[in-house]
């Protein structure tokens, strides 16, 4: 079977002019993930130059009136329908509306796949990657980063983060801004700098190692709040989306996860349990309230949730029991 496909062959495939043999060739070729970028790029170019629908309002109205006159019953006939039939009639409209909403959602998802390339990590995994502009990114476990599939635009370099990542952003001759968008409506805007972003359900945080960062939070009442950070500062969001900035002495500890280190400073075990669920996908259950409120300080190296829990247990009066993807942490029984 042919090992490579040309753009011309893809354009013929999209336009429906390929033979059955050619269609099979392309479909087999497209199953290889290495070919998807070329496939989507060709599809984007083809759709740009071959609009699928040209609207003519007058023709559309005329056809609609014809169809209505040909298919709709007289009003008196409609009123003569049994009551049960009239009650069922709206269901057809609800079904049609549901289908329309499904198609709209599917179209949005398709456009997202077409426009963006996604990098993702599994539980317990980190990933280092280089962006097209030369910037370096390290993704923490259970995180995703979406970047434009066909390169950054002329005005900005925008990426979408869900999870946690450290960025080493390169400065461009055109002073093009680098923007990290998060699910919590916080935009991190820089020109060239080193910073870490946490964007998870339990917290949103930005730690600045070097350079300068502009934060833009889109508040729930449709207002925006803007603040600037300096090196050594950490910014967090409160539940309303307001930005709080403070300075800490050891800013590098917030990206220690790159080396499989976990640094705690009077951190409650309940918060550590949430972190382990995010990073390793392991539920840590702490039945006793006094144990959940115990705090931990220090730096620990661990490659799994059990390894960290074991280390903490050995240095305290705690014991644990592992059950598949669950760890029960409690006091030792005398």
UniProtKB/TrEMBL annotation:
Pfam family, one: FecR
Secretion signal span: none
The keyword Transmembrane is annotated on this UniProt entry: yes
A GO MF term: sigma factor antagonist activity
Highest taxon above the source species: Bacteria
Annotated ranges, domain Protein FecR C-terminal: 261-329
Residue spans crossing the bilayer: 91-110
Keyword field: Membrane, Transmembrane, Transmembrane helix
Domain FecR protein as annotated: residue spans: 118-214
Protein name: DUF4974 domain-containing protein
Organism of this sequence: Arundinibacter roseus
């Amino acid at each position: 079977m042919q090992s490579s496909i040309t753009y011309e062959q893809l354009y013929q495939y999209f336009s429906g002019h390929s033979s059955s043999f050619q269609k099979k060739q392309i479909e087999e070729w497209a199953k290889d993930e290495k070919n998807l970028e070329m496939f989507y790029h060709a599809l984007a170019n083809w759709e740009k130059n071959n609009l699928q629908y040209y609207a003519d309002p007058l023709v559309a109205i005329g056809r609609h009136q014809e169809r209505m006159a040909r298919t709709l019953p007289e009003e008196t006939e409609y009123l003569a329908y049994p009551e049960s039939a009239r009650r069922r009639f709206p269901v057809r409209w609800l079904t049609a509306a549901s289908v329309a909403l499904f198609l709209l959602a599917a179209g949005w998802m398709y456009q997202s796949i077409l426009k963006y390339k996604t990098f993702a990590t599994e539980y317990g995994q980190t990933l280092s990657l280089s962006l097209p502009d030369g910037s370096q990114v390290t993704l923490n476990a259970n995180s995703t980063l979406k970047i434009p599939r066909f390169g950054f635009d002329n005005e900005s370099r925008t990426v979408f983060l869900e999870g946690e990542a450290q960025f080493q952003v390169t400065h461009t001759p055109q002073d093009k801004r680098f923007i990290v968008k998060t699910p919590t409506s916080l935009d991190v805007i820089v020109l060239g700098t080193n910073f870490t972003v946490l964007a998870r359900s339990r917290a949103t945080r930005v730690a600045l190692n070097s350079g300068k960062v502009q934060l833009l939070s889109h508040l729930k009442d449709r207002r925006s709040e803007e603040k600037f950070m300096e090196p050594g500062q950490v910014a967090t969001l409160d539940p309303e989306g307001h930005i709080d900035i403070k300075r800490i002495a050891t800013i590098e500890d917030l990206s220690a996860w790159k080396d499989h280190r976990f640094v705690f400073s009077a951190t409650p075990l309940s918060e550590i349990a949430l972190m382990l669920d995010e990073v390793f996908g392991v539920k840590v259950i702490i039945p006793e309230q006094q144990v959940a409120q115990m705090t931990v300080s220090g730096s620990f190296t661990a490659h799994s949730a059990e390894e960290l829990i074991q280390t903490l247990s050995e240095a305290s009066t705690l014991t644990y029991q592992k059950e598949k993807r669950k760890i029960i942490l409690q006091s030792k029984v005398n």
